[in-house]
Write a structure and sequence with these properties.
This protein has 503 residues and is of the alpha/beta class. The protein is 33% helix and 25% strand.
Length: 503
């Protein structure tokens, strides 16, 4: 099964304005092989995926696939998919206004003998897939009404509709999944492997790579570093190859002594997502929130910031009761919110960095309705440099940045308002180990400046490693709370148990 080469990448280079995304990259992939592709954000992984899928064309070199002994170059995405090449992208890529069944069979609808769409059979076939992947949903449910984690699972499970698969690329597939669904994904990958399907697996969670991959290819700064069998590497050796240095415990940030109360939430309720929630946040403190899908963490914070409505609940900022009816009220009260979906809610991807950074604060550089263009640029340069956005210029379009740099642009946008309270919802989703460390250092600096940070994360080592206090939620209620001393001796299993409590 592992004897035949199915993919050849030969001396591939790709250039953008001011950036060499790929520089003379070459390696091969065999039939039925699960190959990890790792590297920091900006290493060239996403560009290489696009070239394999035919979305981008290499400026030099070739990418070819073996079809029954004939080597073929896929010149566009449709051609690649018709030849059995599929990609599960990091950013959820399904039609939000269609149902699950419509997404599964988009472009390949089942029909009756009369030539009409066979909705009944499509619903039945969709239910088989839904059951196989353990999703508690109906095939008629609209995608946009599902939580992000379920949207991600639908995207993954959609691959199984195809019976002509040769190569599947998974780009950060577990970033939004809870533990149970991660195991379901791994079983699916094993099933594909046993059928002779080749896998390229991209993840910043190195423990996953060690568990499920046969081999690993490392990219750094757009260049090829090495390919090794998985048994010949460790997490530490991979990090060294990726970032060019040894890395100590990335969660080992300095924690100042918490100061005065910045935020107090009392009696927060809505119709279905959260019930009787109370918590406090102090200056210099990181309060972590953990819970499984449906726990209500993100909905709670969105209600706090006026993005969504609540039935009851009082908000106190620095001891004063305040009214927050919409996100602009939250900004005025010094609350900055980094949402879990940066591309949909946090960025204007088609616009340059300078506009994105200033987007929430143009009134601060405007006089008589006229924007000070010099301040617009200088503030963008200043705040981008504070969070170390890697870019040749603040005129760079945000969509052309790596995921980690996009996330840092969102953080720069928040810091432009000089908030005292920052809510980070999944701040390191799809971010490499080097960029994660940089984001943790940003959080550390914020706490030393006397700001308070609320950190929501589905990745337990992260939230347990960074938080001064950890609040666990399950089905909309707080089921556990731990201080720094308790966290030091706490096991992940203890937290998962609290997160799994049924009301």
């Amino acid at each position: 099964m592992m004897q035949d080469t199915i993919l050849k990448i030969e001396h591939v280079s790709k250039y953008y304005v001011g950036v060499t995304a790929l520089n003379d990259v070459s390696f091969e992939l065999k039939k039925g092989e699960v190959r990890a592709l790792v590297g920091e954000n900006g290493a060239g992984k996403s560009t290489l995926i696009k070239c394999i899928m035919g979305v981008e064309k290499p400026d030099r070199g070739t990418i070819s696939m073996n079809y029954d002994g004939q080597w073929v170059v896929n010149t566009n995405a449709v051609e690649a998919q018709n030849r059995g090449v599929y990609a599960n992208y990091q950013n959820i890529n399904i039609a939000p206004d269609l149902s699950i069944a419509e997404n599964y069979f988009l472009g390949r609808q089942l029909t009756t003998k009369f030539g009409t769409v066979d909705w009944k059979r499509m619903a039945a076939e969709s239910k088989k897939i839904i059951d196989k992947f353990g999703m508690n949903v109906n095939s008629s449910d609209k995608i946009r009404n599902l939580p992000l984690a379920l949207q991600a699972m639908v995207t993954i499970s959609k691959i199984s509709v195809n019976d002509d698969i040769r190569l599947v690329i998974f780009d950060e597939p577990t970033a939004l999944l809870e533990n149970e669904k991660v195991e379901t994904l791994f079983k699916f990958i094993q099933e594909l492997k046993e059928k002779g399907v080749s896998i390229i697996y991209i993840s910043h969670r190195l423990e996953e790579i060690m568990d499920i991959c046969d081999s690993v290819t490392v990219l750094k700064d757009g260049t090829y570093v090495d390919t090794k069998p998985i048994e010949e590497v460790t997490k530490d050796s991979l990090i060294t190859m990726m970032v060019g240095r040894k890395m100590s415990d990335i969660y080992n940030i300095e924690h100042p002594q918490p100061g005065k109360e910045l935020l107090r939430i009392e009696n927060f309720n809505d119709t279905s997502h959260f019930h009787q929630v109370d918590f406090k946040l102090h200056a210099g403190e990181i309060v972590g929130f953990f819970g499984l899908v449906g726990a209500g963490r993100s909905e709670l914070m969105r209600a706090l910031c006026g993005v969504e409505k609540r039935l009851t609940g009082d908000v106190y900022v620095k001891g004063n009761k305040v009214e927050i009816k919409d996100p602009s009220d939250a900004l005025k009260q010094g609350i900055g919110f980094l949402t879990e979906d940066r591309r949909a809610d946090g960025l204007a991807l088609q616009l340059p960095i300078k506009i994105n950074v200033n987007m929430n604060s143009y009134e601060m550089i405007r006089k008589r309705g006229i924007i000070d263009l010099k301040k617009e640029v200088s503030r963008a340069v200043d705040y981008s440099s504070r969070v170390n956005v890697k870019t040749p210029s603040v005129m760079q379009t945000v969509r052309n940045l790596s995921g980690g740099n996009q996330q840092k642009v969102v953080i720069a946008k928040l810091l432009c308002r000089d908030p005292d309270i920052l809510i980070f919802d999944e701040p390191t989703v799809g971010v490499d180990v080097g960029a994660k460390e940089e984001i943790y250092k940003i959080i550390e600096n914020l706490t030393h400046q006397g700001r308070g940070v609320i950190l929501i994360s589905s990745y337990l080592p992260e939230v347990m490693g960074l938080a001064d206090r950890l609040i666990v939620m399950a089905q909309g209620k707080v089921t556990g709370e731990y201080d720094k001393n308790e966290l030091a001796s706490l096991h992940e299993e203890d937290v998962l148990r609290k997160a799994s409590i049924e009301n």
